[in-house]
Design a protein that fits this description.
Blueprint lengths: L7 H9 L10 H9 L10 H7 L32 H15 L3 H10 L7
């Protein structure tokens, strides 16, 4: 997807022209292109794919797609706050909230249950 940072190896292959790419503006477009056979593969976060395939407009494409068994990378997500009293206050609020979340259970509930359908 346009402006995504992939792995260093993949990004260098794209820059050098070894790996051809078609830039798109959304993961949804990539999903549609792969499902329609317009491209062989697309790089997408596995959790994003699972979430998007729960959307009514993309559900019919789910059986036409599969995740590669070999993940490219497992990336961390970060939140940046201003380095002042207000930023530290919000950092502390977020930290307290995150400490109360069972990430594994929440991800499992949201991403892998077939009964969850979103508009």
């Amino acid at each position: 997807m346009k402006d995504y940072v992939n792995t260093d190896v993949l990004d260098s292959m794209i820059v050098s022209g070894v790996q051809p790419v078609e830039a798109v503006t959304s993961d949804e477009l990539n999903i549609k292109k792969v499902a329609a056979g317009r491209v062989d593969a697309a790089v997408i976060d596995v959790n994003v794919l699972q979430y998007l395939l729960k959307q009514k407009t993309l559900q019919p494409l789910a059986d036409k797609l599969q995740i590669n068994r070999q993940l490219l990378a497992n990336k961390q997500l970060y939140i940046a706050f201003r380095n002042n009293d207000e930023g530290r206050r919000w950092r502390d609020i977020v930290d307290r909230g995150l400490a109360q979340i069972d990430v594994e259970a929440l991800a499992n509930d949201l991403l892998y249950h077939d009964d969850v359908v979103t508009e």
